[in-house]
Design a protein that fits this description.
Layout (H helix, E strand, L loop, with lengths): L4 E6 L2 H9 L8 E3 L11 E2 L1 H4 L9 H7 L4 E3 L3 H16 L5 E4 L3 E5 L9 H16 L3 E6 L2 H11 L4 E3 L5 H5 L12 H9 L5 H6 L2 H8 L1 H10 L15 E12 L2 H21 L2 E12 L4 E12 L2 H18 L4 E13 L9 H19 L13 H5 L8
Helix pairs in contact: 4-5, 10-11, 12-13
The structure holds 2'-deoxycytidine-5'-triphosphate and calcium ion.
The site of calcium ion (CA) has 4 residues, from strand 1.
């Protein structure tokens, strides 16, 4: 199923906040950045000021030359931060999958959310709430991926909505100038121009090897973007992409019960961190470094996400057995990583036993938080009892 992603961007943000507090500024050319006789640049320009050619980043003196009757305002950052927090709070009311970008932009993944009607109806509802509560206008781009949603919101500005239907991405992008694509600055634009390319459609048709030769790895990204391909997820802030723990052995070893016990201990640490973030993982990776410093990793991915120590360990243990049976060499370091993470509580209506395991793990987490990690040990980690006090020092990468 195609994803449905919103890119929501407040119009002329700093200026609009000032206009919301001083209605006499509405409909006028307004510049936030400071007095025009001082050094400094334009931070935000109202759409009326933009008609005179005033743009963000331009020296204030130049802005004054272009439009002497514009109203120049110093700006007040705490006010903008406050408005930004309220804006993000409104958005968070519509979807938990929210990725703020700076103060006045956010991506939201609303795939499968149809309780508010069509995506367009939801977008209008969000815009209405922003307008009523904050007296600010927002533009929203709707598409199946981030890059197209972002460009659609640029086109929708000011105070509009543009929806690109799944499958229509290439057609939508084709006539637009290449610098509409994020990542195409003046330098890249010049390189593309030297190849005779000015529109996204021309860029999409350019053979990938040519683009790669001229722009390296960013050429590959641009090629995908130009073809409406962007697999980036909407990412919640502060979420880890992976969680790992590893430890170097005091003495290189092939002692399987010891390695298994260490692995269990590391899995419990990773599991505790995962649960503290309300995360769950689908992939478990084992890392072994041998005495000759050769390092191998082995992964297993499951369709079922988990945060249970038992499940993480049982997956890691299988990988350990396999690795040790394939290469009998002294082990110098052992580590475990969980990735392919998802966040938020998941309802598992038909599965009560993994849930029970998680409750048990959480109870153990609480006791360990209070009395220390070694206060509770599972059967398998008892093997490490003597090490806890001395040479077991897990490294946190
Ligand atoms: N900003 C800044 N300096 C810049 C660009 C932006 O201080 N060179 C600040 C002021 C803007 C805010 O960040 O109000 C958001 O930046 P945008 O690029 O989203 O610009 P606007 O919101 O002002 O306008 P638009 O309607 O084009 O989004
Ligand atoms: Ca903006």
């Amino acid at each position: 199923m195609a994803r449905c992603i919103f890119h929501i961007d407040l119009d002329a943000f700093f200026v609009s906040v000032e206009q919301s507090l001083r209605p006499e500024l509405q409909g006028r050319p307004v510049v936030v950045g400071g007095r025009p006789d001082r050094r400094g640049v334009v931070a935000s320009a109202s759409y009326e000021a933009r008609k005179f050619g005033i743009k963000a980043g331009m020296p204030l003196s130049r802005a004054y030359q272009l439009c002497p009757k514009a109203i120049f305002i110093e700006g007040n950052f705490p006010r903008y931060r406050d408005a930004s927090e309220k804006f993000m709070t409104i958005l968070a009311g519509y979807s938990p999958s929210l990725e703020p970008v700076g103060l006045d932009e956010a991506y939201m993944d609303i795939t499968g959310c149809d309780s508010h009607g069509t995506p367009c109806q939801l977008a209008e509802r969000i815009r209405r709430e922003i307008k009523t509560k904050l007296k600010l206008t927002a533009s929203i781009g709707i598409a199946s991926c981030k890059v197209v949603a972002k460009i659609a919101s640029d086109i929708a500005k000011p105070d509009g909505v543009v929806e690109v239907a799944p499958g229509a991405e290439k057609e939508f992008l084709a006539p637009l100038p290449v610098n509409s694509l994020p990542g195409v600055g003046r330098k890249t634009e010049a390189v593309l121009k030297s190849l005779g390319i000015t529109t996204i459609g021309q860029l999409a048709a350019l053979p990938l090897p040519v683009l790669k030769a001229r722009l390296g790895s960013s050429g590959v990204v641009l090629h995908n973007y130009a073809n409406g391909i962007d697999t980036r997820r909407v990412e919640l802030p502060g979420e880890a992409k992976s969680i790992s723990r590893e430890t170097t052995l005091a003495r290189d070893t092939l002692d399987q019960p010891l390695l298994k016990a260490l692995l269990r201990y590391l899995c419990e640490q990773v599991g505790a961190e995962l649960r503290s973030q309300d995360g769950q993982a689908r992939r478990v990776t084992l890392k072994l470094r041998y005495a000759d410093f050769d390092t191998v990793t082995r992964s297993s991915t499951s369709p079922e996400a988990t945060s249970s120590d038992d499940v993480i360990f049982s997956r890691a243990e299988v990988l350990l057995h396999k690795a040790l049976s394939q290469r009998r060499e002294l082990v110098h370091l052992i580590g475990v990583e969980v990735s392919a993470l998802t966040y938020g509580k998941q309802l598992r209506l038909f599965e009560s036993s993994p849930r029970r395991l998680e409750y048990l793990d959480r109870a153990v987490d609480r006791i360990r938080k209070k009395y220390g990690f070694a206060s509770i040990q599972t059967g398998c980690t008892l093997h490490l009892k003597d090490l806890f006090a001395s040479d077991l020092k897990p490294a946190m990468p």
